[in-house]
Design goal:
With about 220 residues, this protein is an alpha+beta fold. It is about 40% helix and about 25% strand. It is built from seven helices and nine strands. The strands form two sheets. It has a five-stranded mixed β-sheet. Strands 1-2-4-5 form a four-stranded antiparallel β-sheet, sandwiched between helices. A hairpin with a 2-residue loop joins β1 and β2. α2 crosses α6 and α6 crosses α7. The longest helix is centred in the middle third of the chain and has 20 residues. The radius of gyration is 17 Å and the shape is globular. The chain starts with a strand and ends in a 12-residue tail after the last helix.
Length: about 220
Amino acid sequence: MEFKEIGGIMQYREIEYHSKEEWHSIRQKHIGGSDCSIIMGHNPYNEDIQELWRIKTGREKQKDISNVPAVKNGIIQEPYLRGIFEAQYPEFKVDTLEKTLISLKYPFMSANLDGVLEDKTSKEKGILEIKTARCMNWKQFERDWKNEVPLHYHLQVQHYLAVTGWKFAVLFANIKLEWTDESILKRFNIERDEDDIKEIIKKEIWFNSFVINDIEPPSKTKLMI
């Protein structure tokens, strides 16, 4: 276990895991980045906050989605996309971190990062988030990916920035354009947003209170961002 400092102040500790089972155990005990948008009420694929509560309280097991085609595709592509990013943007040093990061101030918050960036000039650290996506038509691409990242991914990244204390992230996405049978790579620079982080922490404290007190939360919640 290691402790990391940002500006002389410890922000998080690292927990090692040596198997998929250990990783799931750590994940079950904390609120991670993929949980954030569910708690905030802005996940287009899963709005069931009560199911999340059942998982976090041990009443229900996390579904294994590793063999879902879209998820499997993302897992396969991740190391290649990380390599492409490193080759295209040599101003960054890119590392992987096979550990879970736990916030010291809010120890129920955790982060598992696709990559750790270091600006070679400023030596400032940041987050690399890798995504794969499919767009069935131009309208969907224009809505979801043309100019900014989908909100649930923005919330995920801000959650990670809250845990690490870092100031920036880069989301690097490979987007399949189904109507052309082509793919495009898009880079999005995401700065730390203190207002968003404040609301995320507020909402995650609210959700964690139900976990601690073993009380089921209300079924519908949505916080405007």
